[in-house]
Amino acid sequence: MTNTKNDNLKFIDFCAGIGGGRVGLESLGMQCTGFAEIDKNSEKTYRDFFSQDEVNYGDVMKISPESLPEFDVMIAGFPCQTFSIVGQRKGMKDDRGKIIYGLIDIMKARNLKYFILENVKGLLNHNGGSSMKIILNELDKAEYKVFWKLTNSLYHGIPQMRERIYFVGIRKSLVKDENVFEFPKEIDKTELREYLIDTDENELDEKERSYETFLRYLENKYNKGKFSIKDLLKEDFLVIDTRQSDLRLYRGKVPTLRTGRHGILYIRDGKFRKLSSCEALSLQGFPKELINKIKRKTAEMYLLGQVGNSMTVNVVRDFGKSLLNFIKK
Question: I need a surface site. Which of 93, 104, 227, 324 has the fewest CB within 10 A?
């Protein structure tokens, strides 16, 4: 992780999850002055990563803006389940979908300079695209110039197929006509084998229910005769994902890590292995020193779910860098 000086910009980590956004901005030298997260399990992991003593400002919709410490930048992966194809796609009708309004209220109350927000690809076409238009219109009315882009963690050096929308906002009074915001340049992903390195016993036991489930996938009417266990085991770092009735193979990358997906397998040394929480954290860009802090502290199932709900550190870092470059101009 690199640290660079940037006039000591301060940020608050809203809808913080386990802190992927925080790690990304801190790698640029920004200073975190607080966080807000309502999920107690995620808060525990967040504190294990960073500090047991920091104040959690809690529910965004109940925060009094005046109670917040000084900050220049808001980072928030505001709830995506309401716009996700995995969820029921209730959008703004769901209380979680309304959190964007709570964030905007804080921006206006604190005359905030900058923000970086993240959400799922499904927001683009939710309700015929009207949800996206409403959000952009509300941010415009709040006096922010907004730049947004759909990107993929694959384009930021991480071998994970994770499409997300990133919004970068700058208070209009700080934007000069000649200023051009430049989105991060795409870079090649690194080798998947560098991430699948957990040495703990995460081989798939043939007595486990997950192995029986995997065998059923191989033999169902959609897959019967398509795959041979013997052939699969020949290919090191082949990634196998089961979803609904489908079985999919990936080479050089993993599918999107998400809260409800715990069944990703891969081949190493001629054996089936389960993607571990430590490997999942690395596939979200978390550095080894943080991963080692959390190892064996939280049950795998819960930590995998938390990781699936996190922002990718590298993507936040790259968009943060673009924001800093804009500010310098």
Answer: 93
